[in-house]
Amino acid sequence: MSYPEVRPRRLRRTPAIRRLVEETRVAPAELVLPMFVREGLTDSRPVASLPGVVQHSRDSLRKAAVEAVQAGVGGIMLFGVPETRDETGSAGCRPDGILNMAIRDVVTEVGDATVVMSDLCLDEFTSHGHCGLLTPDGSVDNDATLAAYAEMAVAQAAAGVHVVGPSGMMDGQVGVVRRALDAAGYQDVSILAYAAKYASAFYGPFRDAVESALEGDRRSYQQDPANLRESLREVRLDVAEGADLVMVKPALPYLDVLAAVRAEVDVPVAAYQVSGEYAMVEAAAANGWIDRDRVMLETLTSIRRAGAQIILTYWATEAARLLRERY
Ligand code: PBG
Fold first, then answer.
1. Is residue 9 part of a domain?
2. CATH number of the domain residue 141 falls in
3. Could you say which EC number(s) this protein's record lists (predicted)?
4. What tens digit of pLDDT does each residue of 104-145 get?
């Protein structure tokens, strides 16, 4: 019988030694909480397919933002759900549109203590649910949409947002938004580019959360899940156009993309752990099939290990609390 000369198990013997050699840690400050605010609500309302996530009223949004900041999260990403929608998504640009009002509220409440971000996309505001304006034949008109994004970006900046998150996957969107912000005097507003965003079925529960009107799919603008090199091209373009941060989305099913993007660029890389990723864990945990908290932290650790420096997750507040107890 021969005995092993090398024994990796030595470094796994006790909690103390495991802690000493732990390679990846998730810090609360790296977590960003996506939040939904619904026009016309007096109280928050649960989202059935996202247990624990709600559509906020303006009041409940402010309170939840304070809680998130107290828990130590690094940022908040806001999504607005308007009461009425139109062909062009005009409520996204109006100063009294729900998202722009919510930005003002949250920036006033916690703007000095955290980073306030906003989704820069038309899909919540259009009657057809697409991320852009439509041509008469019903396809998404890239360049007309860019003009709308430019206007929306300036409206969000005027509301006080720190970071805009263009998520519509229109070609040239980052450059157009950067120039519009600069021309309006908002040189200090950053851009978190949804650089590699896949046409994913994992967004299902999000569409409930924003009461999406979409019929059909977004495959003519979001990426094919089969493609990795295409993401690197998208990311390079976005950085060249002025992205301050880039994002890969979804997260867990795309860790290979995340790692490749991390190696490709020197700007901070974020990952969005999307609604379907969250819902799968919650559903399995509700059935008693997995240990919810451990799985939650394991997914976040994996996303961090693959190369994300920033993680958008619906668990942000709760995970921040758990992580604080741990370290
Ligand atoms: C588009 C947008 C979507 C998500 C974030 N921004 C939906 C889509 O592209 O269809 C999905 C996020 C999630 O599933 O949690 N504004």
1. no
2. 3.20.20.70
3. 4.2.1.24
4. 999 999 999 999 999 999 999 999 999 999 999 999 999 999
Kindly state if the Cβ of 123 falls inside 6 Å of ligand 1.
Answer: yes
Residues 6+ apart with CB under 8 A from 89: 122, 123, 124, 125, 126, 133, 148
Does the C-beta of 121 come closer than 6 Å to ligand 1?
yes
167 lines ligand 1 (CB under 6 A): yes
Type of residue at 55: Q
126 lines ligand 1 (CB under 6 A): no
Expressed in angstroms and rounded, the spacing between residue 208 Cα and the centre of ligand 1 is 11
**Amino acid at residue number 71:** A
Atom of ligand 1 nearest to the CA of 314: 15
The pTM of this model reads: 0.97
The domain in which residue 133 lies consists of 27-326
How many folded domains does the chain comprise?
1
200-229 residue pLDDT tens: 999 999 999 999 989 899 999 999 999 999
Nearest-angstrom CA–CA distance, 305 and 58: 36
CB-CB neighbours of 287 under 10 Å: 8
